[in-house]
Amino acid sequence: MNFDDTPQEAAFRAEAKSWIAANAPKALEPELKTSGFGGLYLGSVDPMQAAKAWQKKKAAAGWACLHWPKDYGGRGASPIERVIWGQEEGLYAKLSAPFTIGHGMCGPTVMAFASEDQKRERLPPLASGEEIWCQLFSEPAAGSDLAGLRTRAEKDGDDWVVNGQKIWTSGAQHSDWGLLLTRTDPSVAKHKGLTMFFLNMRSPGVEVRPIRQMNDQRTFNEVFFENVRIPDAQRLGAVGQGWQVSLTTLMNERLSIGSGMPTGFPDLFELACQLETPDGPAVDDPAVRAKLADWAVKASGLRFTAFRALSALSKGETPGPENSIGKLVAGSMMQDIAKFALDLEGHAGLLTDPDDAPALAKFQTMLLRSPATRIEGGSDEILRNIIAERVLGLPPDIRVDKDVAFNAIPTGGR
Amino acid sequence: MNFDFSDEQKQLRDSARRFLEKQSPVAVVRRVLEGDEGYDKELWKGLAEMGFTGAAIPEEFGGAGLGHLELCVIAEELGRSLAPTPFSSSIYLAAEFLMAAGSEEQKAKYLPKLASGEWIGTFAFAEGVGEVTPDRIASGASQGKLSGTKVPVPDGEIADFAVVAANTGGSGVRSVSLFLVDLSGAGVTRTPVKTIDPSRKHARIAFDGAAAEPLGAAGEGWSILTNVLDRAAVLTAFEQVGGSDRALEMARDYALERIAFGRQIGSFQAIKHILADMYVSATLARSNCYWGAYALSTGSAELPEAAATARVSATQAFQHCSTNNIQVHGGMGFTWQFDCHLYYKRSNLLALNLGSLSQWENKLIERMRAGNSAKDAA
Ligand SMILES: Cc1cc2nc3c(=O)[nH]c(=O)nc-3n(C[C@H](O)[C@H](O)[C@H](O)COP(=O)(O)OP(=O)(O)OC[C@H]3O[C@@H](n4cnc5c(N)ncnc54)[C@H](O)[C@@H]3O)c2cc1C
Predict the structure, then answer these.
(1) C-alpha to C-alpha distance for A68 and A70, rounded to whole angstroms
(2) Chain A hits for B268, Cβ within 8 Å
(3) Are strands A159-170 and A152-156 parallel, antiparallel or unpaired?
(4) What domains sit in chain B, N to C, each tagged with a CATH number?
(5) Quick check: is A253 catalytic?
(6) In this structure, are A276 and A371 located in the same domain?
């Protein structure tokens, strides 16, 4: 057990540090510092432009998607080096938000299942941020119950013809490519009739409609497919193996989400140290301290749990369901922290305009975004089920739908 | 013991519910939420015509002279329907201030207009970040002129007048006095501010030598406002309980309707337990509110403790229920289109607008301790 860098790691860190010092968009630092979770506010600069510019620069110097092989736009770095990079990149990592799904989930799936030519063609522009990807999994009647999806793909010559609807697709409106899970055979059990593809989001018949969220942003979308043609060559994995392929995506989702989930704790700690109560800084109040301490140990527990997972990964073990802990803890923690920050701010906690509100309305933004964290990519309840069933080995819920043909499952009229 | 509302009061609640279901459907709430108008004028007029605004105002001052228990049942329905009106500012605060500290002339001048809804009043209190204390009130008044900036003031843009807390010399609780200020007069500048619940508008009000008429004795401001905030806390707690119940119903209905894994999601124990916990917190809050209502309506010495109890319990319940309502709705709960966020936003507004939860927790324990030592002394 050792937290210190090995000599190679130290050299890598020094190299990363000096490259970042020389190249990072320092002008954005103040805005990045105050950008709350759930929104990137860069003043006059367009966040997407800033994100793409930084990603491109990193890619050109070999600092994009470090753990990917060089041939695919990465650096062939070790998992630990990736963490070191993340630590050094710090604030500027906030600029990577538009690429999280592509880099974290779509890329690894393409890497595992696409042809060599496709990988060489598609992955480098994904790594460099020139192309954005989205994940077209969830549907109106298939969220937690993903395998209940209905978007149909039917074979027609060398193509597949897709009809149906996806929902909650983050970033679809900015995306060039999408990872699409479809139903190719409704007459077999639900998990068995699925097939995965990737498709060009500009294909005829794809329509993207942004959905207004409760925080008044429009980051997720409905995506409609009307006779969209996808070449069979863009199938990932065998026909009917879509569920297994999607598990690769979701396992990587766990890894990418689990390791770096923001909790809001450092921000709250800073607020508590700065905010003056009638009896001195809020951090002097024992009641505030008790809460801070509770969240502090959760935040550090998450951090070190992620370290342990990484150590396992670097020994060649695959990340397992135990990594569900990260999002489960961080999601509700962020919501509680936002509420408590507003509480400390008192009446001023109501204000949402960055010009009026304390900490540039960071916590108000967080309050209105955090409910989504407990739902997206596996709700709290689903994560608890995963921990209980797959980590602890408890018997699963009685399933009425498992071995029934998909088209014979009760649907409640939907 | 009869720890319940009377049949007449329950009838009043039913008629308030019917009225609000018709006059304050979500479409009305959303119109105010999305628009620039400060409140729904039709609804406000209707609330006055129904006699709701004047329920607790004595008949001699143009009210219905019913009492505070009646106001409590109305408040519950206002909370349930998220009614986008200045009811709380005008009635729980301005009217209560006048009834608590107004001279006969002031009562005669203001209360009838408040009862009829013709005038809207509010309370201008907070100025900066964190808990408001006497020494943090920088606004000052002397010789009938008031200067300083208050933010956020509920309904600050639409109110005709405000009760304003200002420093009148010195420090500590005796340094604060209350004033009535005509907000259409000279020396008053109002600007809207954005808040977490845009269905209830707030403003920044800058006073620059505005004409100010004393309300209550000089130096008594802090003690008057402490009492009025307790009264408003009980009434607000009923709004919070009304909102909690509605959020719980929405979650239950969705749990019955939504199918996943071939079954109603309400058949999963995880969901059942969430709903059961919502029910528990809403029920405890309701019971605490009844105690608050009793203390409020009888002028009991228990009011400070009962009010803080109701406030803490109802704040927790509404935040808990509105948060879990979203959770049960999954992705739908995070959309603008579904109504879950309206309750989430309102619950977080009500959690702060009379001072934050932790401040009320402090008050509660202080008051329990004071109550105990008073008992020991007796
Ligand atoms: C901000 C955001 C971004 C998203 N981005 C994407 C994206 O890019 N691509 C994509 O494909 N999807 C995306 N999603 C969709 C997300 O993965 C789903 O919303 C999530 O899986 C929940 O599904 P649902 O919304 O249908 O809720 P439901 O599955 O209907 O769940 C409703 C409630 O029932 C509970 N529940 C369901 N099943 C069980 C069970 N077996 N036991 C106990 N409780 C249960 C849930 O926990 C929840 O509380 C996003 C969602 C959000 C909120």
Answers:
(1) 6
(2) 381, 397
(3) antiparallel
(4) 7-119 (1.10.540.10), 122-219 (2.40.110.10), 222-377 (1.20.140.10)
(5) yes
(6) yes
Please report, as a single letter, which amino acid is at residue B110: Y
Mean pLDDT of A262-276: 94
- Tokens linked to B277: 């916990």
d(CA A50, CA A41): 11
Question: Range with the lowest mean pLDDT among A33-37, B192-196, B219-223, B329-333?
Answer: A33-37
CA of A335 to the centre of ligand 1 (A): 17
Same domain as A147, residue A165:
yes
- The pLDDT tens digits of the residues spanning A183-199 come to 999 999 999 999 999 99
Q: Extract the tokens encoding B275.
A: 């709903």
- Report yes or no on A111 lying in a domain: yes
How far apart (Å, rounded) are the C-alpha atoms in residues A323 and A327? 8
Residues 6+ apart with CB under 8 A from A27: none
Closest in B337, B345, B352 to A346, CB measured: B352
In percent, the amount of chain B with pLDDT more than 90 equals 97
Write the residue with the smallest CA distance to atom 38 of ligand 1. A144
Catalytically annotated residue among A131, A253, A322, A345:
A253
Rounded distance between C-alpha atoms, residue B263 and residue B254, angstroms: 13
CA B129 to chain centre: 20
What is the pLDDT confidence band of residue A33, given thresholds at 50, 70 and 90? confident
Residue B277 distance to chain A (closest CA, Å): 15
How many Å apart are CA B132 and CA A277, to the nearest integer?
A: 9
Q: What is residue A178's three-state secondary structure?
A: strand
CATH number, position A303: 1.20.140.10
Task: Answer yes or no: are the C-beta atoms of A222 and A208 closer than 8 Å.
Answer: yes
Q: What is the mean pLDDT of chain A?
A: 92
Tell whether B331 is within 8 A of chain A (Cβ): yes
Residue of B nearest to A139 (CA): B331
Q: CA–CA separation, A187 vs A413, rounded Å?
A: 19
**Ligand 1: which atom is nearest the Cα of residue B332?**
25
The predicted-structure confidence for B161-209, as pLDDT tens digits, reads as follows: 999 999 999 999 999 999 999 999 999 999 999 999 999 999 999 999 9
Q: What is the CATH number of the domain that holds A37?
A: 1.10.540.10
Model-level pTM?
Answer: 0.96
Contact residues, A window 127-156, toward B, CB-based 8 Å cutoff: 138, 141, 143-145, 148
Burial state string for B106-141 with b = 16 or more CB within 10 A and e = fewer than 16: bbebbbbbbbbbebbbbbbbbbbbbbbbbebbebbb
Q: Say yes or no: B352 contacts chain A, CB-CB below 8 A.
A: yes
B130/A375 touch (CB, cutoff 8 Å), yes or no:
no
Q: Is residue A206 part of a domain?
A: yes
The CATH number linked to A191 is: 2.40.110.10
- Report pLDDT for A320: 76
Instruction: State which amino acid sits at residue A393.
Output: G
Residue with CA closest to ligand 1 atom 37: A144
- Cβ atoms B139, B195 nearer than 8 A: no
Look at residue A401 and tell me if it is in a domain.
no
Distance CA A198, CA A220 (A): 19
More confident of the two residues A83 and B258: B258
- List residues near ligand 1 (CB under 6 A): A 101, 134-135, 137-138, 143-145, 168-170, 220, 372, 375-377, 379, 381-382, 385; B 258, 260-261, 265, 268, 270-271, 327-328, 330-331, 334
Which residues in chain B have Cβ-Cβ distances shorter than 8 Å to A337? none
Q: Compute the distance from residue A372 Cα to the ligand 1 centre, in Å.
A: 9
> Does B135 reach chain A within 8 Å, measured CB to CB?
yes
- Burial classification of residue A268, based on how many CB atoms lie within 10 Å of its CB (0-12 exposed, 13-18 middle, 19 or more buried): buried
How many structural domains compose chain A?
A: 3
